[in-house]
Amino acid sequence: MKRARVVVVGGGFAGLTLVQKLKDAPVDIVLVDKSNHHLFQPLLYQVAVAALSPGDVATPLRTIFRRQNNVEIRLDEVVAVDRSRREVHLRSRETLGYDWLVMAPGNEPSYFGNDHWREMAPGLKTIEDALTLREKQILALEMALCVSDPHERKRLLTTVVVGGGPTGVEMAGSLAEIARKNVEKDFRGIRAEEIRVVLIDGGERLLAGFPEELSMRTLEDLRELGVEVRLNTRVDKIDEDSVWAGGEQIAAGNVVWAAGNIAAPVLKTLDCELDRVGRVKVEKDLSIPGDGRVFVLGDAMCLETENGTLPGVAQVAMQSGAYVAEIIKDNIPGDRRKPFKYFDKGSMATIGRARAVAHIGKLKIGGFFAWAIWALIHVAFLIQFRSRVRVMLEWMWYYLTFSPGARLLYRYRIFRERKRRVPNGSI
Questions:
Q1: Prediction pTM value
Q2: How many Å apart are CA 261 and CA 299, to the nearest integer?
Q3: Which domains, from first to last, does the chain contain?
């Protein structure tokens, strides 16, 4: 009998889990991703702050599936889906037919209609993003040692992080901690108090998805590290030199965007209802309305439950991938499928060395214990044993010495000192 073909779009947590669960199923799988690796995004910010190397948080897809004979890897990008013909169209102009289609393309930073900010304020979604941010941070320190204009020096040593979710909090806390502990040692001539980190969020509190007491704990920890936190503040403008927010101009050498996400544009070609950020409104079995052989998972799906819309976190992606794998493996018809039920294992965010917050069931904790739980869980979910050992050793070394191990420039740029006129009113 002809084996069913399963086309999986995206090698993130959802796609990876689904393909692994179909290891012994009588199907042929084509996994399409525009990157050749699975990225462990929860630790990507540590690449951006030079605490880890890219290879510590990413594993090639071909290495992961080298022993799974029913998987074919395609380094390509799906640009459109034709459900009437059961085909997906790739950027390479190839067409793939499917019997089952699983869309898990993830998301990308949302600039709320200001896409021209992207170049000045990169997000943190890919290895390239992390390396770009890391390079800009290191170059700013190098340039600050060479300029004579005090306003330009202050600008270069200022970083603005936009967004008070987990990514923004983790970035701001890590940058401030590094400034306090080791910049003076490696960049003689720069004092720790000159390093300025500003965290801006439009909401009333940080980590809006966490209990309020943990949000307050996070705010206190960040301020103790020296981060300037500005709540109820919206960004009005970003250019190559400054950020305008709350009626003020902040001269900044680096800007990190962590303020929001939008789903992958390819989801529009499914021709079904989307929510305000472009996610597909799926049925209870995670299929799209009217087509039980097309599923949307992870960050790309919008599923309403009695507790609200499911968040775009790794646990939702992994559980949704495992759930759909069982449907495909057993070829369960739509009227016999049990609704997807998400088991919430808790939420965690790290703030700095031995600083974190965790909400697990009714347990609300912060400090070293929360950080230790966060570290163990994240290491456990890394793909390869070698990565787990390496990351744990890196963390132990950093914990004891405060010395990052990956402060390298791979794409060195020649720069010249420029005399800048800082506009009146900048701070």
A1: 0.89
A2: 9
A3: 4-34+76-108+261-336 (3.50.50.60), 115-259+346-401 (3.50.50.100)
